[in-house]
Amino acid sequence: MAMTDGKRTTLGVGMVGHAFMGRAHSHAWRSVSAFFDLPRVPAMVALAGRSRERAVAAADRLGWRSAETDWRELIRRDDVDIIDICTPGDTHAEIAIAALEAGKHVLCEKPLANTVEEAVAMAEAAERARTDGVRSMVGFSYRRVPALTLARKLVADGRLGTIRHVRAQYLQDWIVDPEFPLVWRLDKDKAGSGALGDIGAHIIDAAQFVTGEQILGVSALMGTFVEERPLADASAGLGAAPAGDRGRGRVTVDDAALFIGRMSGGALASFEATRFANGRRNALRLEINGSAGSLAFDLESMNELYFYDGTEDSETAGFRRILVTEPVHPYAGAWWPTGHLLGYEHTFTHQAKDFLEAIGTETDPSPSFADGLQVQEVLDAVTRSAGRNGTWTAVGDSRAPAEA
Amino acid sequence: MAMTDGKRTTLGVGMVGHAFMGRAHSHAWRSVSAFFDLPRVPAMVALAGRSRERAVAAADRLGWRSAETDWRELIRRDDVDIIDICTPGDTHAEIAIAALEAGKHVLCEKPLANTVEEAVAMAEAAERARTDGVRSMVGFSYRRVPALTLARKLVADGRLGTIRHVRAQYLQDWIVDPEFPLVWRLDKDKAGSGALGDIGAHIIDAAQFVTGEQILGVSALMGTFVEERPLADASAGLGAAPAGDRGRGRVTVDDAALFIGRMSGGALASFEATRFANGRRNALRLEINGSAGSLAFDLESMNELYFYDGTEDSETAGFRRILVTEPVHPYAGAWWPTGHLLGYEHTFTHQAKDFLEAIGTETDPSPSFADGLQVQEVLDAVTRSAGRNGTWTAVGDSRAPAEA
Amino acid sequence: MAMTDGKRTTLGVGMVGHAFMGRAHSHAWRSVSAFFDLPRVPAMVALAGRSRERAVAAADRLGWRSAETDWRELIRRDDVDIIDICTPGDTHAEIAIAALEAGKHVLCEKPLANTVEEAVAMAEAAERARTDGVRSMVGFSYRRVPALTLARKLVADGRLGTIRHVRAQYLQDWIVDPEFPLVWRLDKDKAGSGALGDIGAHIIDAAQFVTGEQILGVSALMGTFVEERPLADASAGLGAAPAGDRGRGRVTVDDAALFIGRMSGGALASFEATRFANGRRNALRLEINGSAGSLAFDLESMNELYFYDGTEDSETAGFRRILVTEPVHPYAGAWWPTGHLLGYEHTFTHQAKDFLEAIGTETDPSPSFADGLQVQEVLDAVTRSAGRNGTWTAVGDSRAPAEA
Amino acid sequence: MAMTDGKRTTLGVGMVGHAFMGRAHSHAWRSVSAFFDLPRVPAMVALAGRSRERAVAAADRLGWRSAETDWRELIRRDDVDIIDICTPGDTHAEIAIAALEAGKHVLCEKPLANTVEEAVAMAEAAERARTDGVRSMVGFSYRRVPALTLARKLVADGRLGTIRHVRAQYLQDWIVDPEFPLVWRLDKDKAGSGALGDIGAHIIDAAQFVTGEQILGVSALMGTFVEERPLADASAGLGAAPAGDRGRGRVTVDDAALFIGRMSGGALASFEATRFANGRRNALRLEINGSAGSLAFDLESMNELYFYDGTEDSETAGFRRILVTEPVHPYAGAWWPTGHLLGYEHTFTHQAKDFLEAIGTETDPSPSFADGLQVQEVLDAVTRSAGRNGTWTAVGDSRAPAEA
């Protein structure tokens, strides 16, 4: 087992899934040790995928030494210390729990699970494994956008004072066209939910992470604008082509989810996740107003953080565009000279770095499975409130109707 | 009476109130005929204010020929054809109804009234007067920001297709400081509500105007962050200084109001009005996503409209910054060469122009008192939903609990 | 004479010309006393224009009490204290000198003159009149954009340290179409020069005003892209329509002028004025970098000033967007609440206010005719350098070839 | 020799230098085959550096199989097909010529050389080798920013019409502090020139690449603001710390270079390269105005291209923000879903991809050494003009004074 083998200088990684997320994670494992000083460096041992042919091709292309067709084989291998789960949400619980029980560290893509029940089981498994030094982490990678990590720091440093407002949106537009096919992300059985779990989960986590507060309760509204779509290849992803003549099927998830709520520190918050914001390709926006200052962020300009310091003289006060590429900024010093931008994929590189460091230093990485469960509970409260005419629904109590 | 006197080339205006709004309206009446060709030009006949000394000084400064201390005197004067109401909301109904019954055209600042009941009475008075050719209009002046008028035109021309999302915010920050005094806008008796009626009314009207759709129902959340403030001079306005040692009083209105809802065309909408968005001085933002395109606007950059044309080839598609100063743009041709900006106050100049034209051409100006009443009903639904744990509340039924 | 008549509370204004600039100045004279407390308020006594019919119509529309067809009549009138010159540059010298000699205060549109010789005569006349208490000022109105006035203040306060770079551009696009007609601004006899004198003069003045430094010398390049255009009505302005079939004439001015130079404090500077920057309607941009900070401005967003404070910690340093509408900002306190924008025309209102204050307090207004002459000398150096293959040409020595 | 060995599926790379550029190139070689389908994939065979200890550590960290202490050893190795030169400019000529003569393909960082003479020799060597199928390319990596590649395409497609203006700036601020030490980039012997060759070379290449035109001649101005600085470790780079007490030395390069010029198609152009633009970390800005449209770009927002289509109706015309992450955009389809940003380093990945493709398909990569020589000639004309009082200096004639 990895933790007890002091002489090894590498940590073997086994990755399950090799689609969009698998490509991004592979790039992170391949790059991380060239930029960061790590206690133990990753070895890209094996990748698992259901089709042997495709798994072998992906392993070859993405830099993995070998391929398996069953994730259980990854868990059995001695040279694998870390299981990295990059599959759709319906498979997370089974894989993660098995891996943890086998003593493998687990990095699991978000959302942690498709249901609160699964997430509870996973968090419990993580807590048991933790007592044996087995680490687990859920992949809310946007915490590792340097601008958002800096945002968290500024809030923690008190630069915003008491938080009054959170305004979070995740706007995409990839299914505006009603002829876009019925990919797995539009299938409730696979994906759990639509915009809500896919991108809404990101803004829930980001808002809670940056403010250091939790969402207490919500009033919600969800909708599906296009209820039937052409059938697609089951494995089709975001860039899928129109589907030809396979007939049509029912969209079983939400196209958009909106909710308003209260944060644990008293702030009023509004959230919106949609795949129908024409022209907004990937606009995760977060704006936070506090008694002493404000912050604004947009993932479409992910190297920038806007900060308003309310303590400045009004003659020169204004939102500052901080280009988050300075040596003093989170993660940025490891990369290029100031002013040279980082791309999307390095949120995963930073995630890999932090996970490897946590393993190497025997500390708990963050966000934990318990954090992932808490996000799942917010998602659940949103779904329940939307089903109850928007009535206020407390987070964390999935059985009884909640009071404000 | 004005309408029957074919020989007059002017229309006498009497204005009630001479604070912030009075100054802005005066500037409009003084400027409008220098820029627009009007069937009948305004004469700034008289201004009314409670203090003689201050009313006389204001009349002199703002260009009014005379001053009265009772608005009833304005209504009695034969040389006054138009009553322009610029006082706090609690006085609107009495003045407007009296003026309409006296056969005076009425321009009334928003919100139309402080309650649905008052607004109903006003709309009924307006409808009665209308049959005698007496015109009335409510001052949602932002409809006359050229960029928002253009936005309306683009939606009406079908450039956005089916509206999917409305995202409206009115963010200010003038009471972030807990020592800012208890001015009349923080007093429910005078102002009716806080951020909701003052600036929330603007985004409700703007969203409905631009989309051409109505808000059907809402789930709402309201809050007051600072519950006690130093007492102030009753007439103090937005720029009031800290109040010295007069003791403290209770804030009886909302500091912020958030709500989500559905539009009559099926769009999902979110609204937020707050005076606690530190660093956002006057950010009325409206973003609309449709099946064919999108629009975005921010009053802090009020000469700009952002338009995304979803029918463009993806190679060059993107949000365009339209500088709304072209001769083909609404109102803009009357002003300066292309690229020369207009300021806040000309929303009132455009409003005066449209009202004078409606009177001159004997047509109904817009927005009508009925439109003002409908906004009042949305405000009322928001308040009721916020009082009922955010439960969905239909607009326009202020007696019975509504269903989704 | 105005200055000796202590009992008068008004100052009579006579304006020459009533086209674009005349409209803008009229709006300023009409508005200024409603917003600013002035020692003496303007009376709009008379306007002069060559055509009686058009002058009378303009006076009526723009709020002038009477009209004259000869500017000499304005000068003769006892009720006129101020002559406001809004005609093309070829007439400035004659009118201004006659007015000054008659003891009238003179506000003259920029550029001061079409040649250095005329400007010298005007500056000398202004200096002679000044000893009798007669005031004169040249209309570089952009000094009164609050954001640029604030920029000057920040530099004067030392917030930028030693100036290293000035980057000034005035980009317009109104003659991109080769069929746009040959209006007077494209005729060297009337306009003196093209983009250089019209808009280049503005950035020269703005750069010198904000930095408090002068341009010492230049290397220049000028060009005319479209050499022949359809003939137009002689009085046609910026918004002229294509000309129909009157034949074609020669463009005798520059379409664009570029120059680089040194400022008196050691900064390196670059300037560009063009009417061929497609899509840039009115982009007067000024960027200044100093050892301690930087500033950036664009007239297309004229209420905003971007300020970089180089003394901030690099964690939160960044260009701040200052919305220049605060009570502490230049001129802004007289207008609307914070966050409410001002338009283009109020640069003229501020200019009128400052000129009236200077007259009322018997102080010298700024920019003086001597300042206007100095700008003319820069224009002259640019023209000469462009005619000498870009060779370095010192400002202020219009006879001999200059050395670096 | 690589080209004749049809069975090899890899191309061995040997890299000289392992500082900032070496790290960037290594990341590219390591990543390129995971994202692009290549005819032959790179093998990271060996890295050369003068210190064995540091070379071995760098090879290990950056993913190279072995390390050499003499670049001549790299050239001698049979398993090396490509020599990648990442050293300061004074060494380029010797290494590149030796490598080409040994039949190795050469990728050489920009600027090609420190003098025109060296660049001529290199271009001649490249031309000789080319006849034997040996490929060479100079590393103007910004041609591979997808937004700039798209800009080139739009110009080539005629979307801008006739180019009227080029406005190019490269603004950095890393030596604003006069106590920043005297690193090699401030030493003329090593670096050839200062801002001019380092970053001015980039905007010269970018402007010529995007427009498809060449700079014909220039008027220039150069300056050094801080003439002495603390001595530093010879290998210190951009992020060097203040130097402690080693004494002071003379800065022998330019801090800033400005020039104006004419393009071969008739456009007027202005260029500025500086390391003293406080607050501008890495602002390579390019703006191009044509008779039919305009483009604007800023490397600090490198995933965005602003495009103005002058053929649009003026009602909706405006600069569009194109987020250059669409499948149809250059290089972008190989990466992430639309709206997910790319970072700085992938300009090098794209460069590696294009170079590998050119080798694999036996075609000439671009930019060639001849292109690099032409940029060197522009740099030379700038330097000579600045030395001759800004007098117009033609590009490409480095012996005789040139005429306009």
From TrEMBL, chains A, B, C, D:
All residue ranges annotated as the GFO/IDH/MocA-like oxidoreductase domain in the record: 151-295
Entry keyword set: Oxidoreductase
Classification via Pfam families: GFO_IDH_MocA, GFO_IDH_MocA_C3
Domain Gfo/Idh/MocA-like oxidoreductase N-terminal residue range list: 12-129
Keyword Oxidoreductase: yes
Protein name according to UniProt: Gfo/Idh/MocA family oxidoreductase
Keyword Repressor: no
Membrane spanning residue stretches: none
SUPFAM superfamilies associated with the record: Glyceraldehyde-3-phosphate dehydrogenase-like, C-terminal domain, NAD(P)-binding Rossmann-fold domains
Top-rank taxon, per record: Bacteria
